[in-house]
Design goal:
mainly alpha; 352 residues; homotetramer; Methane Monooxygenase Hydroxylase, Chain G, domain 1; 64% helix
Chain lengths: 352, 352, 352, 352
């Protein structure tokens, strides 16, 4: 017969609540705040495990050839959960910051050479999101750096990433092209109108002098060029965080026609991905600002000028920068091309 | 030679990250959300361990015969840390609530008869704060309820509580009485004036009819009576959450004369205690509201009508209700009795 | 020609930023914290205006005979916005609480007899949500209380409420009944099975003694009875916050079959309504706890024992208590009755 | 006789609640979300007014020749209030972001050429904090940019700034030097020891190869040089955000000896200043990230490539970067030089 479930056994509290061994105690000069340091990192690692668990389940669905709406809805739900976890993780710093720099110095030397750079789960996570892929040459080293041998082998930079999963799903959009209809050309026209309108705005803007007018006009031309690239580069480039042309067109389509029932959930998924992206960057910002407060310019316990690395890597940490920049290419509602009935009908419910 | 510290070994991640064993998996119908359920409870337990750690260190200081300002300042700092942890714990529900009632039903039956009522650390915590003491007869049962034998013996209702520590510290205030000065009688006069002023306000209030006037006047008399009790009951009553007369007078003194350097830290300590108190109540409220959303009127997995108990116990969960009610007895600044110089001088810095 | 838009004119900052006139200044004893008091209340009033604006737009849609999915989606979006505003409003207290009770006493008497009970927008809001309707006899007085004549006439308790709008929309659900299918009877069977299962759980629960077993069994019977009421009372009772039988069945249907594309948005709307409801209650809780901290047992500036009223009215402030209690009546996924194909097909997209 | 105070008159709600005039309505194509846009900006402006009010009161105290502890304590309290307001202001974006880019496009063109760059209060605030002073040549233009003539004259870059107030206060520290004691030389020795210890850590760090070792050693030398600058530049440079030598030494002293009663409040003031500083930067980050989401690369309504300016100015927005970088120069507790009794005694209370 099955054993009765008991709270503390179910949660394995015995091992969890006894996993706090202070180095400062071992080294015989107990530092009170080391306990907080350990508990904060342990809870953060637990939450990272949960994020891995959710992303794995999402990747599994993205890998399938077909995504029914109910499943997409579950994916959206899980992405939202990840975002909530990210927010929670970010608020951990508020607690950790009740430790002052002097308090930290009480045990900082005891930790050397351990460091947050050795968090396997964090490296695996950035890998799974698709961040490392982006600069494969330069980050190979980083993703391995500071890790013990057996941990190094646990980072597999060749598995499917969230970036790839999303791209593949977007590319499957069947509504971009039909005999009678081409989303691409139809939207290009709308966009050309928008660019013209922007130029007129600039010409008539009362605060701009001639130089600024020129600068802003050049800016519009740059946007046009950038948009062209969207159409001309076929395959995207995961190593640059660049989605394929078809995936981007699909994302644009979803942004514009989100009011159709069938586009509703895809639009929510895109919104969640952007939130997840921004929360990841925000987390790293907040982390850096805490490290700065804590050690100033000193060397990190792991032996590198942690701050410098952190600060440089943050900018490269946006996963879906292409999605984030889409608003540049939105035309206002009244200028969105009307879909042909053959397509608009398919995007609705069977019931009327 | 000392072994090199390695992040994952330091944090004992191996045992922590493998401590998630889903009952639904054991019972061969995997429920995705059980992982979130486990991780949330594990992190909450880790944070409770941290709160215990901080409170233990605080109680140790309160137990000493003398508290230098530097130590009091550390106590304040740690109380603030606890408050931040409580806020963090409360936001855990936002994450847990991404699990819908239907999701929970997928594994609810697997957990029976385990339940949150079996959290030893939570029971120990309420005990240490001084909450159980308050209704010793009725809660004896509760503090033991649902626990395995060996856990029952781990709850010691006779150790020093935060309530007692604070009371003892407050009672030590040496400035309440001297040959020439009696805080009590001096403040009583100020207060009598305030009560008279309140009555005048009521008499002249344009919105009150005769009945309301009578009611509000009775209310003032009640406040007066309540305040009298403060002065007349000598020893307080821990089982009622009632501080001793001297401790309360001391708290009042601190509230009024907080601007003196020497009273600065004590005042901050009192503020933190009230925050801690209110966050504890808020946590239980939030917990109840989550349980309601999750199971409605169904029986809790632990076998009791959880909601009913929770809802009843929340009101009794305020630890420092006496401190919380002090604002009723504050007179406005211009009416605070001036301290005799013999005392006010002592409350300042040596340096001028 | 149209005048150029200028930031400060557009926002009418001149009048807004000069609308802070301190009574304590008029009465010639300036109290620093009165400025914070005024600004906090002014921003709260601005946010209430925004909530009114959103709810009005929602009510307008609910009043129409037909709600296309795109509109429902907009409603969901606006409800979520209201929830975010409610959260923001709740955090205003954190700022206001940087004012201590002594600080408040510096100008409290200057405000008499003004008080928060005179907030017309708040009374109109509770009216619009459907809260006053609920106890029409007793609250008539309250909704008018403390207001000047011209303001009293601005509260119209007869306009459509959010409660009514939601009920009417829910009742329109066309999928509850067809020739071959009756949701009500089909679900009743599933539910009876659940109740039987609950009883078995209780019988076998290892922690329950005979008395508890009896109590919990009675509890199940009560749930059964309550559920019966759902089916037997036809019209609901707005004055009791009770939805009509058909509306509740519809809400249950939506909770169970939310994975169908067509039910997706309705389910999200229900979730948002519950959030809005709980945030409203949470706001009042937080408000009460702040008032307690600030004045203790003293009379409110408006002349009534504010706390007592507040505390009593909070419990009655849940608008959609029927929706909140629905989880009691959810069966687990594997026990949800399968929909006949004639219906399930209609709930999907046209495209496959 | 004084007129009775009435809530809506007291708060001037009539003018405040009627100050929302939608341009899209004037231009006859009502855009629902413009109301949210207006209300958000109006509440933000109200909160800025409150911050001005608090800072003005703080500057007034800093301008006085002597700051008693009670006043310093009030300053600390008001700084904390500002920080809470900043946090609240930052959460306004969460509400504003419920407006999607398409929603914004519905009325974006109506606003041209108005823009947030025209917020007089914001420019005055950055001026008052001491940010513009820093790059006087380059920002002169900016602080005036986009403003109407009469507003331009309202920005006075010559008034006392918070930066100056803090510096003057810090410089007044009387404990840095006496006949028998020199904080500067005493601390320099402690620091040299620390730098040596850092070098040893680097030499023995197991993860560093020779190149990294060299790099990190150079880093220590850089810190030493930087610290020397602290001692050698006498007057600081407000235009570079650089505190004077004496002010910085004083801040260091406060960080090290904060446990002495008399240093307690000064230390809390420094902590609040850093928080205020970081929240200001965080606010601008969050603002930028919202603008990015909303308009992508398009021109801001005010006619400039808003994003570029914003992004560049954020880095220069730290007011107290010198204070923020102090942790680099903290030695651990056991290495802090012991104060001579003549000084340590003065830092305590009169009472023992």
């Amino acid at each position: 017969m099955k054993k009765e479930v008991y709270y503390s056994e179910y949660l394995k509290l015995e091992s969890i609540l006894q996993a706090q061994e202070l180095e400062s105690v071992k080294n015989q000069h107990p530092a009170h705040d080391e306990m907080l340091f350990i508990v904060t990192h342990q809870t953060l690692e637990l939450w990272m495990k949960q994020i891995h668990f959710e992303i794995d389940s999402i990747l599994q669905e993205f890998a399938k050839p077909y995504l029914p709406d109910a499943t997409l809805s579950v994916i959206h739900h899980r992405l939202q959960r990840i975002v909530e976890i990210q927010k929670l993780m970010t608020s951990h710093f508020t607690v950790l910051e009740t430790m002052t720099p002097l308090d930290f110095l009480d045990f900082r030397d005891d930790l050397i050479p351990a460091s947050g750079f050795q968090s396997l789960q964090f490296k695996q996570l950035e890998c799974k999101l698709g961040i490392y892929q982006r600069h494969q040459s330069s980050t190979k080293a980083y993703s391995q750096q500071s890790l013990h041998k057996e941990d190094q082998s646990r980072i597999d930079e060749n598995t499917m990433t969230l970036f790839q999963g999303v791209q593949t799903w977007l590319e499957r959009n069947p509504f971009l092209e039909s005999k009678e209809y081409q989303f691409e050309s139809s939207y290009k026209n709308a966009l050309d109108l928008m660019f013209e309108k922007e130029k007129t705005l600039i010409q008539n803007h009362p605060f701009l002098d001639d130089e600024q007018r020129k600068k802003e006009t050049v800016n519009v031309e740059l946007m046009k060029d950038k948009f062209k690239d969207l159409f001309e580069s076929e395959n995207g480039d995961a190593t640059q965080g660049k989605l394929s042309r078809k995936a981007l067109l699909s994302a644009l389509f979803i942004n514009l026609y989100r009011d159709y029932p069938m586009i509703h959930t895809p639009f929510q998924v895109l919104r969640s991905l952007i939130e997840l992206d921004q929360m990841h960057v925000a987390w790293k910002h907040k982390h850096l600002s805490m490290v700065r407060k804590m050690i100033g310019l000193k060397m990190g316990t792991g032996g590198s000028s942690g701050q410098k690395y952190l600060s440089e890597s943050i900018e490269a940490s946006s996963i879906f920068s292409d999605l984030v920049s889409l608003p540049s290419y939105l035309v206002s509602r009244q200028n969105i091309p009307v879909l042909p009935e053959s397509i608009s009908k398919q995007l609705g419910f069977r019931w009327v």
